[in-house]
Structure formats: structure tokens, C-alpha cells
């Protein structure tokens, strides 16, 4: 879970590094699963902040390269951020082991899928 692999590379070192840092934050979130509500909230908050800044950087770079699918890609990013904000609120209001597990599996499915299937589609602009 959340392991970096060469097949996840998008062909741009700074973006690959940001993806790796995000995966580390997910490992950190996972390691906080047995801890307090505050600890798990902080771990998720860190991931939300890092995701926001990564999306901004990725979108800015793709825009400068006139990447054709940018609007759809931006929409996908915005939907993820909305979902993560909902999860942050839910942790505050109704934290539970089930909710934490749901978030963990959501992060794995969404992030790994996004890098592999959505981000990798822009790799040709860097080659
Ligand atoms: Fe993306
Ligand atoms: Fe990305």
C-alpha cells in the first residue's frame, strides 16, 4: 500500500518527488490509525494541504505546456479536495474505526489510481 514504483513515474522529476512525498504522508496517516482523533485529523490535514499545493503546481505546469485535458484534470482534483474536506469534517464530528478504514482505502484507491491512470496520461508532454 502506498508504495512508489517506477511505473508511477510521470516523466518529470519534481512532480514524481511530490507524488512520493504525498505517498509518504499517506503512510503516515496509516501509522496514526490507532491514535487519537486529533492525531489522525492532523495527519489528514497535512495530506490535504500538500495535495492542494501539488495540484496547484501540477495544473500550473500543464497549463504552461498547453496540455489539452487540463480542464477535466482540474475537475478531478477539485472533486478529490472536496471529498477530503468532507472526511476532515467527519473525523471531527463522528470519528470511528470504520471511518478511518474507509478513508485509508479511499486514499489508496484514489491516489494510486489517479497517478497511474490520470497523471500518467500527461507524461508524453515531458518527453
Ligand atoms: Fe493530477
Ligand atoms: Fe499529481
List keywords for this structure.
Four Helix Bundle (Hemerythrin (Met), subunit A), 4 helices, mainly alpha, elongated, 127 residues, binds fe (ii) ion
User: What's the β-strand tally?
Assistant: 0
Counting helices, strands and paired strands, the structural category is mainly alpha
> What is the second-level CATH architecture?
Up-down Bundle
| Bound molecule kinds, no repeats | fe (ii) ion
Radius of gyration: 15 Å
Distance between the termini: 29 Å
CATH superfamily: Hemerythrin-like
Residues in helix, %: over 70%
Shape: elongated
Unreliable spans are: none
Q: What does this molecule look like?
A:
By secondary structure, the chain is mainly α. It has one domain (13-126): Up-down Bundle (Four Helix Bundle (Hemerythrin (Met), subunit A)), CATH 1.20.120.50. 74% of the residues lie in helices and 0% in strands. It contains four helices and no strands. The chain has helices spanning 13-31, 37-64, 70-94, 97-118. The radius of gyration is 15 Å and the shape is elongated. The mean pLDDT is 95. The structure holds fe (ii) ion (2 copies). One fe (ii) ion binds at residues 19, 54, 58, 119.
Question: How would you sum up this structure in a few lines?
Answer:
The chain is mainly α.
Show the helix and strand layout.
Layout: H1 13-31, H2 37-64, H3 70-94, H4 97-118
Helix pairs in contact: 1-2, 1-4, 2-3, 3-4
The structure holds fe (ii) ion (2 copies).
Amino acid at each position: 500500500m502506498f508504495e512508489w514504483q517506477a511505473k508511477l513515474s510521470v516523466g518529470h522529476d519534481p512532480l514524481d518527488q511530490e507524488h512520493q512525498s504525498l505517498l509518504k504522508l499517506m503512510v503516515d496517516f496509516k501509522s496514526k490509525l490507532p491514535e487519537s482523533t486529533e492525531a489522525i485529523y492532523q495527519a489528514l490535514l497535512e495530506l490535504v494541504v500538500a495535495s492542494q499545493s501539488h495540484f496547484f503546481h501540477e495544473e500550473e505546469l500543464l497549463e504552461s505546456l498547453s496540455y489539452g485535458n487540463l480542464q477535466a484534470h482540474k475537475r478531478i482534483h477539485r472533486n478529490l479536495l472536496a471529498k477530503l474536506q468532507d472526511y476532515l469534517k467527519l473525523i471531527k464530528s463522528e470519528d470511528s474505526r470504520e471511518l478511518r478504514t474507509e478513508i485509508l482505502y479511499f486514499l489508496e484507491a484514489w491516489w494510486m489510481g489517479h497517478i497511474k491512470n490520470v497523471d500518467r496520461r500527461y507524461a508524453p508532454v515531458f518527453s
